[in-house]
Amino acid sequence: MCRLFGLHAGPRPVRATFWLLDAPDSLSVQSRREPDGAGIGTFGADGKPHVAKQPLAAWEDHAFAREARDLKSTTFLAHVRYASTGALTLANTHPFEQDGRLLAHNGVLPGLDELDRRLTELGVMDLVLGQSDSERLFALITAETRRSGGDIGAGITRAISWIARELPVFSLNFILSTATELWALRYPATHPLYVLERDPAAAPDPPAPLDARSRRIHSRSTELARSPHVLFATEPMDHNPDWRPMASGELVHVGPDLAVTSTVPFPADPVHLLTLADLEPSAAASQRP
User: What residue stretches are annotated with the Glutamine amidotransferase type-2 domain (predicted)?
Assistant: First the structure.
């Protein structure tokens, strides 16, 4: 299945090299299992998004490694793709950008004909440039955010509530980022999504460098070790015991000051919940752990 990664470092830009390339289960390592595309989204000092992506596995994409080492940002959003809907093209590679925001998704959302009718009704079908269900999910969130006066949390709640009532759903896990905020949703319980809040100042001893050790990797990161940050990932990326699995239906928001709030605004399961057995063989293969 696809892998998600989101990082918020508060007001000070940092590099995310440790988590993207060097951690024991970094995005680069995970991409050997999900080979269909990789992308990194960040924001510049002017608040404008910057996306670097290719329909290649991160481990063989030299641009991914270069961007992962060089980019500094207050927020990061990264994705490695195992395709379920849409060809292996740049247009179908995550993250997607709409209205100055970025989104990456892990899951399958069938019922695209009905979703396209809804997007047309809301006047946002022009936002969809590829064939993926993920970009359509983002377009619905964008439409509902516009209808909510720019309130992203309200837009997410309206969009996901409509999908949960009207469409067949396998998994809607996603991370949405602006230059100063992150939102993450796990819904339903089909796939995991984890959150980690790191505050070195709260530790009893001076923070040691983040230290990744595996058979192939030994890397240390002093910068992030000294800075508070909040992480989201499809699976724990190091051995820190504080990684917390999000609950099904949980929507987590990280504000500019790293304040974390959590709500569960959705029913336990969508009305039309799907299992692997309900999916086409290619889609089912892309969703196995």
Answer: 2-257
* Distance in angstroms (rounded) separating the CA atoms of residues 68 and 71: 6
Domains of the chain: 3-286 (3.60.20.10)
Q: Is 158 in contact with 166 (CB distance < 8 Å)?
A: no
d(CA 128, CA 275): 27
| Between 282 and 164, residue with greater pLDDT | 164
Chain-centroid distance of CA 57 in Å reads: 17
Of residues 61 and 133, the one with the higher pLDDT is 133
Q: For residue 45, count CB atoms less than 10 angstroms from its CB and return exposed for 0-12, middle for 13-18, buried for 19 or more.
A: exposed
Of 72, 78, 88, 94, give the one whose Cα is nearest residue 12: 72
Contacts of 37 (CB under 8 A, 6+ apart): 53, 54, 55, 56, 57, 79, 80, 81, 83, 88, 92, 93, 94
What is the 8-class DSSP label of residue 19?
I
Rounded to a whole number of angstroms, the distance between the first and last alpha carbons of the chain is 6
Residues listed for the chain: 289
Determine the pLDDT at residue 183: 98
Rounded CA-CA distance 136/82 in Å is 17
Pairing between strand 272-273 and 168-169? parallel
DSSP codes, 132-171 = -HHHHHHHHHHHHHHHTTT-HHHHHHHHHHHHHHHSEES-
Neighbours of 152 (CB within 10 A): 19
